[in-house]
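Observation: inputs received (chain + zinc ion).
Thought: call the complex predictor directly.
Action: predict_structure
Action Input:
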Amino acid sequence: MILVITGPMFSGKSETLITMLKTYITNQDKGFVAFKHKMDTRDVGCIKSRSGKSIECIMVQDSNHITDIVKQINPKPHYVVIDEVHFFDVGLADVVSSLSNNDINVICSGLKTGEGIKPFNTTAQLLAIADEILLLKRECASCGKQTVFTKRTVDSKDEFLVGDMDIYENRCRKCYNKA
Ligand SMILES: [Zn+2]
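Observation:
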């Protein structure tokens, strides 16, 4: 099973991921291992929700690193969790496929688009192979309608600008280019 949780920033992706995982673990008492990319410099070593829930995770530099680590875990985990998948190389889709073929459930979370509503390729590929997709939404900061997009409020050419509400806000498609 491959589940992808996606949506804009501030839509509760990490919260949903942690809640789902805790439900699985309590109900079935199965092991899990969680990963995050080294580029994600917020909350190093843990996946944290805005409400303060958190789980420990391993920081990795690329998708192959996940394969190497999971191979060494014995008995194999029942769940592999990968947060902020948009930071990863496109090889992540193959890694996730082979974990799933090996009877490991994979729960991924991340942004599907970046600045200018441009797709993140890694998330796009994961969405294509997912068994289940959870699309979260949040109100547009301008008109209040539910949206799945996030816009930068500062000028930067960096594709992966790490930040929070200080430099990002949610905008619907119609309000995206409004000042
Ligand atoms: Zn709007």
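Thought: report the result.
Final Answer: The CA atoms of residues 11 and 138 lie 5 Å apart. The longest strand covers residues 32-37.
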